[in-house]
Write a structure and sequence with these properties.
Length: about 270
């Protein structure tokens, strides 16, 4: 790999409902790619029904901790979660956040309140602009809540609206609210994520894309995490170097990791 400081800050083990491999195997995959570090950020979609979040969090935290100890001389293993829809069940979310000593919490919106994941939606009969306006307002509320460390895949719905279903979106219509999101992130000294998973799907782009990342930088954005969103051990770190390439094009000289919920800047080199 052309970069020495490789950290994949968004990965899923088989503790996620859609994961496939153990925390140990994720770490093996990271080592095989020459990574310096990995954050294990399993799904914790707080608005899920009939789900024992306490049991999930305990199991995931224990297994991630075992991996951290097993690889302490080879890999910097960061224990995290991807907290989905945390603003819809704030008390429950805070209980999870405060019960475990996480290094890193990704904040995500995968669906609007009491509705299905954007992955499952049929967009043929939808008002796309109205839907995206609702989505970005939910992300803005998440940023204002200020309980997570990095906002995951800012343009998540486009993975399916544009990438899968081929519906073009004029993202400039949402610049005002996106700028508000950036302002909250910057004021609260949190991070924005570059999710590189889209490079390997129909959308063939990062989430968000380079234009929005540059806009974040020009707004004063300092902290930015890069994650593969891998659900397989052999796909850990895929696309991370492309993410660093984009960061450099946008004027960033460092990316961000989190330890004990505190941002740490790492040189892109």
């Amino acid at each position: 790999m052309k970069y020495r400081n490789i950290y994949d800050m968004h990965t899923h083990s088989d503790n996620s409902f859609d994961g496939n491999h153990s925390c140990i195997l994720l770490c093996e995959g990271a080592c095989a790619k020459g990574a310096k570090g990995i954050a294990i950020t399993d799904h914790c979609d707080i608005d899920g029904k009939n789900y024992d979040f306490r049991a999930f969090s305990t199991n995931q935290f224990v297994e991630a901790t075992k991996a951290k100890n097993a690889f302490k001389d080879k890999l910097d293993v960061l224990i995290g979660i991807e907290l989905g829809q945390g603003i819809y069940e704030k008390e429950k979310s805070l209980n999870i956040i405060n019960s475990f000593s996480y290094d890193f919490i990704l904040g995500a919106i995968h669906n609007l309140e009491n509705r299905e994941d954007f992955y499952f939606m049929d967009y043929s009969d939808k008002d796309i602009d109205a839907l995206l306006n609702e989505y970005f307002n939910a992300v803005l509320e998440l940023a204002k809540w200020n309980q997570t460390d990095s906002i995951a895949h800012l343009t998540y719905p486009l993975r399916y609206i544009t990438g899968r279903d081929g519906i073009k979106v004029d993202i400039s219509k949402f610049y005002d609210i996106i700028d508000e999101i950036f302002s909250e992130i910057i004021t609260n000294e949190k991070a924005l994520e570059i999710n590189v998973s889209g490079l390997f799907t129909e959308i063939n782009d990062t989430l968000p894309n380079i234009e929005l990342i540059k806009r974040y930088k020009d707004s004063g954005g300092k902290y930015i995490t890069v994650g593969s969103d891998s659900h397989y051990y052999n796909k850990v770190c895929n696309g991370i170097e492309k993410g660093y390439d984009i960061l450099k094009k946008c004027g960033f000289k460092q990316f961000t990791i989190f330890k004990n919920r505190q941002p740490i800047l790492i040189d892109i080199e």
